[in-house]
């Protein structure tokens, strides 16, 4: 495959999975002028992309003739189903796309298995998990980490560049999966730590808005702490990433740590708190409910402070 040409004249591209993340990412490709055909198990979730120029496929088989197909699904089982299930993208070995780019967060083992299946069918495979959520995607702040054959990465890089602010190539094989798993372990540990110190400050008499404003403008602040501040201040748990999905990533990360004989005491402790958030039953809210659990353990009743807080993405909340 040659490098993509100017928008509207490049390779034909397919997209599988148009949920909160996949839909926002597909929209960025479409608005960049990429010829895009999208499919989602629930067709209604894909149809809004038609207004951005996307063709809406009735079946995955309609994507088999594309030069490049992106997949963005929730679990390894979902990935296997859309690739190899009845009517799946790779079900007809004589009619397959040239390149598959998987942006899902799955284990190294699952990724390697799908890579092997692709190789057997002559399909080049890139693992390209991402850091961000739908709001981050729309702000153009998504980060991607990619592994696989370097020549394939070089060919697809212009498409990847439309999706966000940075794309990091880390080597062959499935190394990108390990990078993403490490990233999400850190995500959980940082969020739990942020919840703990915020509750400590508030129980001592400091408003969450004031404490987080100080933190975000100090050397300890980060893009992430600023981004999560509106949720913490106003108790807005509109889901961007659920406790169940975070638990999955902790399972993957701790399994990798065992395999590589790396002690992870902080991650292991946080995993139990993530499990508690799942066990609370609040699995359809954002994982920022870790703040509520921490407050409850500290006998602190939280209320929304109803303050407009800059999230660093150009939108206050």
Task: Tell me what the structure shows.
It is a single chain. The chain has 317 residues and is α/β, with parallel strands linked by helices. The chain has two domains: 13-173, NAD(P)-binding Rossmann-like Domain (Rossmann fold); 178-297, Orthogonal Bundle (N-(1-d-carboxylethyl)-l-norvaline Dehydrogenase, domain 2), CATH 1.10.1040.10. Helices cover 45% and strands 11% of the residues. The protein has helices at residues 20-31, 76-84, 108-120, 134-138, 150-163, 175-203, 208-216, 223-234, 243-260, 265-279, 290-297, and strands at 13-16, 36-39, 55-56, 68-71, 99-102, 124-127, 130-131, 143-147, 166-171. The strands form two sheets. Strands 3-2-1-4-5-6 form a six-stranded parallel β-sheet, with helices on both faces. Helix 5 (150-163) links the parallel strand 8 and strand 9. Helix 7 (208-216) packs antiparallel against helix 8. It starts with 12 loop residues before the first strand and ends in a 20-residue tail after the last helix. Mean pLDDT is 94; it is low at 1-8.
Q: Any key phrases for this structure?
A:
N-(1-d-carboxylethyl)-l-norvaline Dehydrogenase, domain 2, 2 domains, 11 helices, globular, about 325 residues, three-stranded mixed beta sheet, alpha/beta, six-stranded parallel beta sheet
Helical segment tally?
11
Strand order of the largest sheet: 3-2-1-4-5-6
CATH architecture of the largest domain: 3-Layer(aba) Sandwich
CATH topology of the largest domain: Rossmann fold
Q: From the alpha-carbon coordinates, what is the Rg to the nearest angstrom?
A: 20 Å
- CATH C-level class of the largest domain: Alpha Beta
Average pLDDT confidence is 94
The fraction of residues in strands falls at: 5-15%
| Major sheet description | 6 strands, parallel
């Amino acid at each position: 495959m040659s490098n993509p040409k100017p928008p509207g004249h490049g390779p034909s591209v397919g997209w599988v999975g148009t949920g909160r993340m996949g839909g926002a990412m597909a929209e960025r490709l479409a608005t960049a002028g990429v010829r895009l055909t999208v499919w989602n198990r629930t067709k209604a979730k894909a149809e809004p992309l038609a207004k951005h120029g996307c063709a809406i496929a009735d079946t995955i088989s309609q994507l088999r003739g594309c030069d490049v197909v992106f997949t963005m699904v929730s679990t390894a089982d979902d990935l296997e189903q859309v690739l190899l299930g009845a009517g799946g993208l790779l079900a007809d070995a004589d009619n397959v796309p040239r390149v598959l780019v998987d942006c899902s967060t799955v284990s190294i083992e699952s990724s390697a298995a799908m890579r092997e299946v692709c190789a057997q069918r002559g399909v080049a495979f890139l693992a390209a998990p991402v850091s961000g959520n739908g709001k981050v995607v729309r702000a153009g702040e998504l980060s991607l980490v990619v592994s696989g054959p370097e020549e394939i990465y070089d060919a697809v890089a212009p498409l990847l560049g439309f999706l966000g602010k940075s794309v990091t190539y880390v080597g062959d094989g499935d190394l990108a999966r390990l990078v993403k798993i490490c990233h999400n372990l850190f995500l959980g540990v940082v969020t739990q730590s942020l919840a703990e110190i915020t509750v400590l400050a508030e129980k001592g008499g400091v408003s969450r808005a004031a404490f987080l404003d100080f933190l975000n403008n100090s050397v300890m602040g980060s893009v992430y702490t600023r981004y999560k501040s509106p949720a913490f201040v106003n108790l807005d748990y509109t889901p961007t990433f659920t406790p169940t999905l975070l638990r999955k990533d902790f399972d993957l990360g701790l399994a990798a740590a065992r395999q590589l004989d790396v002690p992870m005491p902080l991650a292991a402790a946080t995993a139990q708190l993530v499990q508690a958030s799942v066990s609370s039953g609040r699995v359809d809210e954002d994982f920022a409910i870790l703040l509520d659990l921490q407050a409850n353990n500290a006998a602190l009743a939280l209320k929304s402070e109803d303050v407009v807080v800059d999230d660093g993405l150009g939108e206050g909340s």
